[in-house]
Amino acid sequence: MPEPVHVTLLAGGFGGARMAHGFALLGDRAELTVIGNTGDDLELHGLHISPDLDTVMYTLAGLANEETGWGVRGETWSAAAMLETYGEQTWFRLGDRDLATHTLRTARLRAGDRLTAVTDDLARALGVAATLRPMSDDPVRTKIRTKDGWLDFQEYFVHHRHADKVEEVRFVGVDAARPTPEVLDAIESADLIVIAPSNPFLSVAPILALPGVLDAIQAAAARTVAISPIVGGGAVRGPAADIMRSLGTTPCAAGIAAHYATRYVGLVDVLVIDDADSGDAAAVTAHGITLAMAEIVIPDEPRRLQLARDILAIAGLAAD
Amino acid sequence: MPEPVHVTLLAGGFGGARMAHGFALLGDRAELTVIGNTGDDLELHGLHISPDLDTVMYTLAGLANEETGWGVRGETWSAAAMLETYGEQTWFRLGDRDLATHTLRTARLRAGDRLTAVTDDLARALGVAATLRPMSDDPVRTKIRTKDGWLDFQEYFVHHRHADKVEEVRFVGVDAARPTPEVLDAIESADLIVIAPSNPFLSVAPILALPGVLDAIQAAAARTVAISPIVGGGAVRGPAADIMRSLGTTPCAAGIAAHYATRYVGLVDVLVIDDADSGDAAAVTAHGITLAMAEIVIPDEPRRLQLARDILAIAGLAAD
User: Fold this and answer.
1) Mean pLDDT of the residues in chain B
2) Can you state the angle between helices B51-60 and B14-24, rounded to 10 degrees?
């Protein structure tokens, strides 16, 4: 049996989880480490909630609610109803199973454990074979400026349903935060670094903003393949297209290429865009990024697995 | 309309909740303050759990599971199942609605709020008209010595199903703890002090062990009426009878009289025993305690209300 390919995936929630699932479905052929965004983390009812890490974890554990794209399948909502009775806010509702995750995470963090260790134990307990790493053990909080001023990420994303125009994005705490040794090691030892089709401005940017991460990726032996989150002029999900318009860019695969090429010079070696966006091919390569095409809308297992295979092939690390 | 009678009730969980319910059913005729035992409190999954306070609160809010005698009616158990998947202990299972209570309590305590304020807000939010007070804001932890050594209360009570012989009971922290000003005020301003038919050794004793409580009750203008937790030679529920046997006493109404009269001289003015225990009458009065008889097994609303009425009548504070 050939050695497994060490894949290190930079991931947000929705797109990150789906892409992670694809590589996980490769089984022994790939050894997957997911570096998860924690800029979306929040404290609610005294609990530490890590939405992006959990979306990846539940997806890899086979527990995810694929319909909503977040939370646990077959979830119940008794605690949320009780919290509402107690007069608590109701726009960020916690499912009962999900609440167990947050309760344990919070207890362990308060006991002094690293988020890295807690995340690892939770994922292993749920049977996740991949290694799931928070980007940092230090707090980084994504803040969004809209016409209402600076909002916490989840306030913007969930409460306001990402309907407001994004005027500015900040990752509070990122300058003082550090990527963990585990994250730097996963980058350094990777055979392939993949940037998931997550929101480049809100989900991938916090990871790349951590001091040392960009340098580590550029110094790594592995090539970096990014998957476009934009297909046919719109985001597969979420506000990526709207944000690009806010920033004066057209939401298209070429715009993603421009974003990665200009903001992170030399980071992305290959950009994978959807077969539907072949019209953007010339614009992508104009940014000095190698172009690859694949089916990147991956709602189900077969398409997730196929995209993972395609990415390995694109990187010259053919899966079989 | 006559002035309401100010009733201050010393209460554990099961018997305390039922007795509190009886007084609450008097409506405007009584103004009830419940002083709840917190010796049974525990920390689990990082959450502060107050089983006795919650049993009283849920009962007064009309949310109690009357079948089990604890927890919330129509409870779901999704979080508990998830915690089990994470490898957490399963002998003390938290229902989903109940978990919301513990989550909020813990968050507020960690934010620096007093247990007194948190308990008050939770109970008010659930529509409880009575005033519910923890006996103290300071930690007191009931420990039970059995053949296995010293156990935490819930370990003895729930995990070992109170099956082991109790060799000794300790209230760790009680000497350094203080009753709250609200508790002392409720005792001082009471028209009637009632000791619920709760376990005298495990549920009432921690309250009376708090420095100053016994003095306050003895100094109070109100008479103190205790309700026997023993009927027909057995406890209505729980290990009271077994504990009495462990201590070399016969579990009977006379034994309860002996306990209160010898351990807390001058505390109890009247002991209410069950009609079924009329044979113990002479033995009770021999302890210098006034005897009263009533139906003290109160599984349903009519009997709870009737016992509350009977107690007011016994104390010369007739309800109507």
Assistant:
1) 94
2) 30
